[in-house]
Amino acid sequence: MTIREIDANTITDHVAGLCVKANTKLPDDLVVALEKAVQIEKSPLGRQALQIILENARIARQEGTPLCQDCGVAVVLVEIGQDVHITGRSLDDAISEGVSLGYRQGYLRKSMVSKPFSKRENTRDNTPPVIHTDIVSGNKIKIIFIPKGGGAENMSRVAMLKPGDGAEAIVKLVAETVKAAGGSSCPPLIIGLGIGGTLEKAALLAKKALVRPLENWNEDIEIAELEQKVLKKINRLGIGPLGMGGTVTALAVNAISYPCHMASLPVAVNLQCHSARYAEVVI
Q1: 141 lies in which domain range?
Q2: With contact defined as beta carbons under 8 Å apart, do 26 and 61 qualify?
Q3: pLDDT of the residue at 182
Q4: Rounded Cα–Cα distance for residues 262 and 38 (Å)
């Protein structure tokens, strides 16, 4: 296959558009999941909260306004074909400029601070983004943009379980994480679950799991059964929509597993709030 050249400006323009799209339009599968949740939620207050969430999504889409005041950290998942050559400047620079442009042009709240444990001065354009890159076959670039809000992210967790702990320990870890979060993570949640690899691999898997279509269980039957078991456990906690009590605390549990060292069982739980925003493009 011949090398395909892609101008960095093309990437910048697409990323800028994704910033605005993701922050103003909930994915269709999430809207459907929320509508189904209204039908099964047993708490009247919980149903009312879900209806307000849906109305907020409708207004945001119609008027092009942010779904949430927290427009998040710019998390960017990139799959770049090995037969692609980017011209003009680096991939990271092109993405960063796109984030800066999108957040300024879209009047989106800028949340990034430059000194995490000292001055904490706002960078004023929501850069730098957090970029994760995978090299794949082909001559295209796939970009998934996730504006990850601070509330749910703050309540996420990574644990190094014992190798023999098994599935029940994973279920217990997720349940304890969600219970400790309570309403702070803005349920109903999407729960990304990364199992295996190493500490940082598990965390990345959990992040990637957040953008899997909600209607799809994992293709591996064993993992799908774990997802269902965790979801049932979470929805028996009684936290409910927006932490107001109810039977729908989570809309979905998406798990991804990866082989790991025989002495390890890394597990990451990445919580995503009801404003589970993301947008993607293939260039």
Answers
A1: 4-23+67-148
A2: yes
A3: 97
A4: 44
